[in-house]
Specification:
The protein has 147 residues and is an alpha+beta fold. It has helices at 20-30, 37-41, 43-47, 68-84, 95-102, 106-118, 137-145; strands at residues 2-5, 12-15, 50-52, 58-60, 93-94, 123-126, 129-131. A hairpin with a 6-residue loop joins strand 1 (2-5) and strand 2 (12-15). The N and C termini lie far apart (48 Å).
Length: 147
């Protein structure tokens, strides 16, 4: 293997081979991620915020700092893990789910959901149905950790 300076980045460039197969292997080994692994990678961080019941409902861990926005976000994170466990068929959260789980009034839940949707943290999949995608899990956990 020959090492030569890379003028553009200031770093070094490893010249192993110029074959497309070697490049393909390098990309697979170094740049490819499995979206399902994000749940595994973030499991310890996520477990600080909730537990799951076998029916797929999210049981929030007590935290006096939670605003309605944070509570709604915890439910969305929990649903991702409920889906992964096979407790629910999809990680979709509905308004009735939130009202029941959080025991908060509609006038508190709706603005929290709208704020998360407007900030592109959760996505609307249908009228009154929202989901936190795996790609946004790390962002959601960072928001929860930075209370």
């Amino acid at each position: 293997m020959h090492v030569k300076p890379n003028r553009l980045t200031g770093g070094e460039k490893l010249e192993d081979s110029e074959s497309p197969d070697d490049l393909r292997k390098w990309v697979v080994d170094n740049l490819t991620t499995d979206p399902a692994n994000i749940l595994w990678d973030e499991r310890e961080r996520a477990a600080k915020f909730f537990t799951l019941a076998p029916d797929g409902s999210v049981v929030m861990r007590p935290n006096e700092k939670y605003t309605a926005r944070h509570k709604v976000l915890v439910v969305h994170v929990g649903k991702l893990y409920a889906e992964a466990a096979g407790y629910v068929p999809a990680a979709v959260v509905t308004y009735p789910d939130l009202l029941t789980t959080l025991n908060l009034p509609e006038g508190t839940v709706y603005p929290a959901v709208k704020g998360l949707r407007d900030d592109h943290v959760i996505d609307s999949v249908d009228n009154g149905r929202h989901v936190l995608t795996r790609a946004k899990l790390t962002r959601a956990l960072e928001e929860l950790e930075n209370l």
